[in-house]
Amino acid sequence: MKTTLGISTLLFASLAIAADVPPPEVQIAGAVLAAPAELREGAAVIGYNPHGAQVKIREGKNEMICLASDPAKTAFNVACYHKDLEPFMARGRELTAQKLTGAKRTETRFKEIEEGKLAMPREPRTLYVLTGTSFDPATGKVEGSYLRWVIYVPFATPQSTGLSTKASDGAPWLMSPGTAGAHIMINPPKPKM
Question: Are 32 and 25 in contact (CB under 8 A)?
Fold first, then answer.
């Protein structure tokens, strides 16, 4: 009897997850919004299957990869990036699945880059991130949308870029200077509420 109840509970939980995962076309429509308009149609998309696992839901025709918003989270958060960043991004997804987040995840990836365990492109590559409170697939609009750019420039320094390391809304600034994970942050001014 215990086994039957356990299987029933797992099946119910699986169905509950499946009900909350948007169909692939909705995930794709939201995911590509982070990319520049001319790259959206040909971007590969990594989304979620009916069980909530991340899978490729659309093959790409250009060098852009987009990540669909996690259906398990209430906020809308998508990202698009050049395919050369995929090892770095995939490692981030692995660490998140292992419950390693925030600064610890960042430190782990940067350490692995410096140790030669994780590939990072030698040329600058951009990550586009779009966040918001919700996405309406009928209109294609993101409520409370906020777009920011992260340009990975390995080993960049304030001297080589002319940028400050102080965070700034509306002006570029440099994070992790002098490391393999050095990157320029560009945060447009946040909308006034």
Answer: no
Residues facing residue 67 across a β-bridge:
46, 79
Alpha helix (H) residue ranges in the chain: 2-20, 24-31, 37-40, 86-97, 102-114, 158-161
Give one word for 48, left, alpha or beta, with left for phi > 0 and alpha for psi -120 to 50.
beta
CA-to-CA distance for 47 and 23, rounded, in angstroms? 10
14 phi and psi angles, rounded to 5 deg:
-65, -40
C-alpha to C-alpha distance for 64 and 38, rounded to whole angstroms: 11
DSSP helix/strand/coil, 56? strand
- Determine the Cα–Cα distance for residues 34 and 131; give it in Å rounded to an integer: 9
Cα–Cα dist 56/45, whole Å: 6
* Whole-angstrom distance, CA of residue 104 vs CA of residue 91: 13
Beta-carbon contacts of residue 12 (< 8 Å; ≥ 6 apart):
none
User: Which element (helix H / strand E) includes 129?
Assistant: strand 125-132
Task: Read off the amino acid at residue 83.
Answer: K
Q: How confident is the model over 65-94, as pLDDT tens digits?
A: 999 999 999 999 999 999 999 999 999 999
In this prediction the pTM is: 0.83
